[in-house]
């Protein structure tokens, strides 16, 4: 409007000068005298008054035709604090922009360091993968060696089982041989006893034979003596002959017994030789069995040594396999740690990129809003109330946000939607609504300065729409010093501000609180002035129940 107003003032000045000059000349020609003044002075007064009238009429016509200029002039004083606040916001935004640039530079440095660390981690991961490949190859070789040794162990165990079976068979045969040897020893002892008995019987028979021979010789000597004496007595001779015949019969019997004993001795000698031969065979068999036992013992010792050696090799291989498994587990753990570190670095890099993008977006948005603020009007200053309403539950939040977007659109905000609530802020709001679990009053304010033609970012808060104060209940009291009207007015204004602060702290928007108007303030001051004393207690109450979602109409209360 300024580019229209300035030409209008210039043209108006020319019109006023020309019209005033024309009117003054006409008044001068008429020689008018007002209030006893000279015609020249009267013409000058007419020229001045006509110029003032023409200027006033022109200005009135211009203001009637341009009511927005009137509003602009009327709101100029009100906009000065806002302009100062906007300048401060611009300076703060510039400081934020500088900090954002510094933060972006720092984030770029962190991103460079993270990329360097990522490259180092990738190099370490490549080395770890190569080491893992080598360890896996070694593990496969060790597993094949273990399988071969396991097969060899099984073969040796089978051979050991066969050897143990043979050893058991040899021990069984050795036991049988020992039993046979023991039987043969018993037979040899029996035969020895029988031979001893036979020899004893032979010696007895030989003794009896020698006794018989001695008796026969004695008998022959007696016979010869008796034959010499036969002549002396025939009776004795016949008796002697009879005894001689008996002796011969006994001698024959003794010879027969000697022959029988000789045959028995020959048989005993043959049995003894057979027994000796059997004993020799048994001793040889026992020696063979002992040799087989010693060979079996040696084979068993060799098998035990082989088994111990294989057990040692198996234990060493198991130890090597366990060590390889531990190394593999450690390498896999290192690989997992490297992969986790790489993933963390990737996540950090993504987070840094997201943060950098968000900062760039915020910087672009702040720059665009700052540029729009400089060039266009603000739809919503920062912390200005955008929309507030009672929300029954979380399910009604979408409709509430749509209504907020429509309300923002009526103030000049543009976008899809015109009012935005970030996902994090919406999640926090939904959590709070679920926690309240009742009808809640939600108020959303502008998170930052929003220019006309741009969407407005919301900052929302929810409070339970419960009764805070009953109608007529005194919200706050204060002691007012009487006497000075200006001081009383200031104290009452501070009391109203304290009440408003109390209500806004408890969830009532400051835009919903209506302070004391002139029609209530003037009678209150009048009543206080009429009171005696130095001080008086003044209270502030609401005409209706105070809820976060209700309009609050305050009025003073005097006891």
Automatic annotation (TrEMBL):
InterPro entries: DUF3084 (IPR021435)
Region: Disordered, residue numbers: 200-251, 283-310
Signal peptide: none
PANTHER family cross-referenced by the UniProt entry: CILIA AND FLAGELLA-ASSOCIATED PROTEIN 58-RELATED (PTHR32083), TRANS-GOLGI NETWORK-LOCALIZED SYP41-INTERACTING PROTEIN 1 (PTHR32083:SF48)
Bias kind Basic and acidic residues: ranges: 200-211, 301-310
Keyword vocabulary terms for this entry: Coiled coil, Membrane, Transmembrane, Transmembrane helix
The keyword Methyltransferase is annotated on this UniProt entry: no
A Pfam family it matches: DUF3084
This protein's GO CC annotations: cytoskeleton
Membrane-spanning ranges: 43-65
Biased composition (Low complexity): 212-235, 242-251, 283-300
Name under which the protein is recorded: DUF3084 domain-containing protein
Keyword flag Transmembrane helix: yes
């Amino acid at each position: 409007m300024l580019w229209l107003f300035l030409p209008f003032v210039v043209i108006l000045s020319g019109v006023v000068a020309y019209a005033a000059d024309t009117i003054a000349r006409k008044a001068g020609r008429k020689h008018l005298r007002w209030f006893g003044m000279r015609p020249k002075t009267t013409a000058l007064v007419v020229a001045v008054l006509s110029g003032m009238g023409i200027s006033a009429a022109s200005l009135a016509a211009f203001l009637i035709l341009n009511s927005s200029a009137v509003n602009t002039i009327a709101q100029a004083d009100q906009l000065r604090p806002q302009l100062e606040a906007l300048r401060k916001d611009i300076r703060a935004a510039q400081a934020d922009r500088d900090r954002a640039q510094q933060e972006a530079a720092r984030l770029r440095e962190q991103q460079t360091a993270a990329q360097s660390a990522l490259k180092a981690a990738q190099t370490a991961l490549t080395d770890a993968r190569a080491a893992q490949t080598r360890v896996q190859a070694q593990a496969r070789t060790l597993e094949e060696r273990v399988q071969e040794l396991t097969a060899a162990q099984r073969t040796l165990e089978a051979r050991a089982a066969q050897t143990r079976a043979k050893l058991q068979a040899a021990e069984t045969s050795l036991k049988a041989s020992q039993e046979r040897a023991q039987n043969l020893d018993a037979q040899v002892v029996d035969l020895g006893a029988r031979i001893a008995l036979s020899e004893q019987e032979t010696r007895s028979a030989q003794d009896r034979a020698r006794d018989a021979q001695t008796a026969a010789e004695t008998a022959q000597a007696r016979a010869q003596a008796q034959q010499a004496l036969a002549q002396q007595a025939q009776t004795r001779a016949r008796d002697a002959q009879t005894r001689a015949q008996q002796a011969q019969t006994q001698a024959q019997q003794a010879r027969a017994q000697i022959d029988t004993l000789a045959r028995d001795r020959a048989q005993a000698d043959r049995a003894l030789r057979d027994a000796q031969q059997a004993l020799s065979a048994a001793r040889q068999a026992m020696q063979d069995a002992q040799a087989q036992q010693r060979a079996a013992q040696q084979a068993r010792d060799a098998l035990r040594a082989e088994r111990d050696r294989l057990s040692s090799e198996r234990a060493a291989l198991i130890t090597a396999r366990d060590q390889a498994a531990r190394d593999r587990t450690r390498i896999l753990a290192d690989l997992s740690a490297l992969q986790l570190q790489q993933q963390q670095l990737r996540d950090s890099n993504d987070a840094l990129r997201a943060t950098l993008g968000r900062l760039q977006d915020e910087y672009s948005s702040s720059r665009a809003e700052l540029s729009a603020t400089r060039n266009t009007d603000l739809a919503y200053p920062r912390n200005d109330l955008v929309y507030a309403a009672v929300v029954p539950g979380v399910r009604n939040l979408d409709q509430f946000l749509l209504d907020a977007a429509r309300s923002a659109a009526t103030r000049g905000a543009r976008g899809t939607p015109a009012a935005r609530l970030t996902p994090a802020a919406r999640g926090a709001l939904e959590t709070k609504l679920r926690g309240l679990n009742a009808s809640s009053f939600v108020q959303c304010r502008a998170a930052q300065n929003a220019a006309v033609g741009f969407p407005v970012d919301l900052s929302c808060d929810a409070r339970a729409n419960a009764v805070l104060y009953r109608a007529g209940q005194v919200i706050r009291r204060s002691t007012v010093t009487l006497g000075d009207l200006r001081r009383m007015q200031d104290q009452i204004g501070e009391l109203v501000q304290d009440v408003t602060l109390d209500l806004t702290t408890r969830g009532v928007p400051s835009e919903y609180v209506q302070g004391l108007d002139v029609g209530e303030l003037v009678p209150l001051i009048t009543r206080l002035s009429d009171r005696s004393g130095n001080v008086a207690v003044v209270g502030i109450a609401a005409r209706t129940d105070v809820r976060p979602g209700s309009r609050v109409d305050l009025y003073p209360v005097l006891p």
